Amino acid sequence: MELxxxxxxxxxxxxxQPGSMFFMKNALxxxxxxxxxFGILSTMVVHSRMSxxxxxxxxxxxxxxxxxxxxxxxxxxxxxxxxxxxxxxxxLLEEYYPGLSEVPAKQLVVKVPAMSSxxxxxxxxxxxxxxxxxxxxxxxQARVDAQVEGGAWYPETQAAWEKAQVLREGTYVxxxxxxxxQEALEEQFRLQFQxxx
Length: 197
Description:
The chain is of the alpha+beta class. The protein has 2 domains: 2-47, no CATH class; 52-191, no CATH class. Helix content is 53%, strand content 15%. The protein is built from 9 helices and 5 strands, in the order H-H-H-H-H-E-H-E-E-H-H-E-E-H. The protein has helices spanning 2-8, 22-47, 52-62, 69-76, 79-84, 91-96, 130-151, 155-163, 182-191; strands at residues 85-86, 105-113, 121-127, 165-169, 172-177. Residues 60-76 and 78-84 have low confidence and may be disordered.
């Protein structure tokens, strides 16, 4: 470390004066060592398509082998998950779903992952009328189409968006783009509307 301190003492900064502010000199050394290391590691993570965040989020949302809609809703309202998800509103909602904020809604829940490489986008909406639901479904389908046509940059995410569905039952509309849980979530949405005999 003496050699390092001697080299830093040559710098023309006030904190680099000999015999003072050793914490700044140590911080500079740490930055110089860690920066190239992180550059190499991040390239390997992106190149190998290792999305640690999406794996953790997928495990969190999977529940007990499948993610029923009620469990999904409860999980998405968990404070931990709220920090991991982007809750688009205002300009961001308009950017993701142009025109959706103008559709009269009794209820609207929109959950979008904070990372674009993770396909786990859920929109649940109860509209005022069936006509409003039809308009909302068209807006949500436009989002799916945009992602399939190049909005989803990675091949895996594009494949997941190709399986995404916009479902409609009366005044209720859902956009479900959930990769591994796609079919289970679609089934859970449909089960909500089956008549009980």
